[in-house]
What we know:
By secondary structure, the chain is an alpha/beta fold. The protein has two domains: 133 residues, Aspartate Aminotransferase, domain 1 (Alpha-Beta Complex); 212 residues, 3-Layer(aba) Sandwich (Aspartate Aminotransferase, domain 2). It contains 13 helices and 13 strands. The strands form three sheets. Strands 2-8-7-6-5-3-4 form a seven-stranded mixed β-sheet, sandwiched between helices. It has a four-stranded antiparallel β-sheet with strand order 9-10-13-12, with helices on one face. Helix 8 links the parallel strand 5 and strand 6. Helix 4 runs parallel beside helix 10. The chain starts with a helix and ends with a helix. Pyridoxal-5'-phosphate binds next to helix 5.
Amino acid sequence: MKIRKHLETLPPYTPIEPFEVLSARLGRDPSQIVKLDANENPYGILPSVRAALANMDFPHIYPDPESRALRGALSHFTGVNEKYLLAGSGADELLDLLMRIFLEPGECILSCPPTFGMYPFDAELNGAGCIEVPRKADFTLDMPSILKAVEEFKPKLLFIASPNNPDGSLIQPAVLDELLLLPLLVILDEAYIEFAGEDLGVSISRIREVPMRENLIVLRTFSKWAGLAGLRVGYGAFPEWLMPILWKSKQPYNINVAASVAGTASLANVGELVELVEKIKRERTRLVSALQEIKYLKPYPTQSNFILCQVNGRDAAELKSRLAEEYGVFIRYFNKPGLRDHIRISVGRPQDTDILIKAMKDLSG
Ligand SMILES: Cc1ncc(COP(=O)(O)O)c(C=O)c1O
């Protein structure tokens, strides 16, 4: 039986391996693994969230298809009325949902690499294409080339991560304003916004503008700042006209009971999460200084919970694999256009930084 033609040649997305798989593969106890490759929260979930999960009332009953409890809490948290909010099984589900809603075979999205790899992947999965307009060397957007590409290829959707993964830079407000004048939907991916600025990213985020605009979507996630990567909880704010289409296109039970309980309980304890985010930001400062001392690394400025570094004068792939095999330290390695010989390191706990930096120094010689 033939599968759909465009899937025959689609290369698979390479996901990050979880603790238990790494642990089995390396023969190392999970406690001996320093996992700095997927920008997860190293402190895990709050004790109150763990307790809420242990005391779930109705795990045997299908979840609320409208995720009302979670969306109510999100409305309070974001200041956006819940009629504009939709939750997803991670921001990833919402990315795919948008592509499924908007893209006819042969149409395209616009993405500005280096950036999150799921944008082109999901477009191609849905039989569409991705026009790529590379960022400049300092990771800012190349506006003249974006304008040209929009005119020439008429992409329907433009995806911008801010802070951007993998470099951690924010889009300038005036640049976003310019993008919002284009004849397309702008999807602003704020997966890491809580690490930017001083106030969980509140004063930087553009989410509260969504109800006033027709072509801005803001995506968020609990995976990074709230430590729920394994439970898959994301959300987005969407223009009002799009909401009925989203409601009818999503899987009815996309947010499972555990995800909803964990998301709601996290928002009930935002103060504690802020403390963890602040801890991570303090550790980020320490990690940047320590990385600056390693002579073969050039770390870039970041507003997120990861640090991109250029590796100079040595093989970055070998560095990555030696850190993993000899020290149980996992980082992300890139070797693609704009990111030749680069590594991305998630900010961990102080003890994770100590192990990483010692290993990096050992490997200097
Ligand atoms: C920029 C960006 N957007 C979205 C996601 C996906 O988030 P989620 O775990 O909510 O699917 C990630 C995860 O790495 C990301 O880096």
